[in-house]
Structure formats: structure tokens, C-alpha cells
Write a structure and sequence with these properties.
The protein is mainly α and about 80 residues long. It is globular, with a radius of gyration of 14 Å. The chain has a two-stranded antiparallel sheet. Helix 2 crosses helix 3. About 15% of the residues are buried.
Length: about 80
């Protein structure tokens, strides 16, 4: 049985990329993913693997928590 907790990962990839004046393609090449992956991640439509999250944080030389934030949802089965 699948439970919907509505939690997600929020990110600041776009902000860090723009501050570094990089294109999505340049960032994608630097961290080993497609431009499309960066695009959907910036729209918060994709949560990266832990490895990719750490790779991106390392690339920007910041802590992973500076870019990615866990947003806790609620269990819809609770009353």
C-alpha cells in the first residue's frame, strides 16, 4: 500500500547556477547529467539522488544543505 506523505526536496540549484553565470548545459556537463535533468531539478520536478546532490554541492563548494532542503509533508492517512 502506497502512502502519500507529500514531502519533497526543495533546492536552490538555479540560484547557485545563475550566481556563477553558468548555463544549464555547463552545469550538467560539470556534474555528469543531462541538461534536461538540471532543468527539471530547477523546477522542483525532480529530486536528485544523494550522490548527485553531493556532487552539485561539491561543485559549488557549499554544504549540501545550502542547496537542498527536505520539506516534510503530512501523512494524509492521519486523522
Amino acid at each position: 500500500m502506497k502512502e502519500d506523505f507529500e514531502d519533497y526536496i526543495e533546492n536552490k540549484v538555479y540560484e547557485h547556477r545563475v550566481l556563477k553565470r553558468m548555463s544549464q548545459k555547463e552545469l550538467a556537463d560539470a556534474v555528469g547529467v543531462s541538461k534536461q535533468t538540471i532543468f527539471v531539478m530547477e523546477k522542483n520536478n525532480y529530486s536528485p539522488s544523494l550522490v548527485l546532490a553531493f556532487r552539485i554541492a561539491d561543485f559549488f563548494n557549499v554544504d549540501v544543505n545550502d542547496i537542498f532542503t527536505y520539506v516534510k509533508g503530512s501523512d494524509q492517512n492521519e486523522n
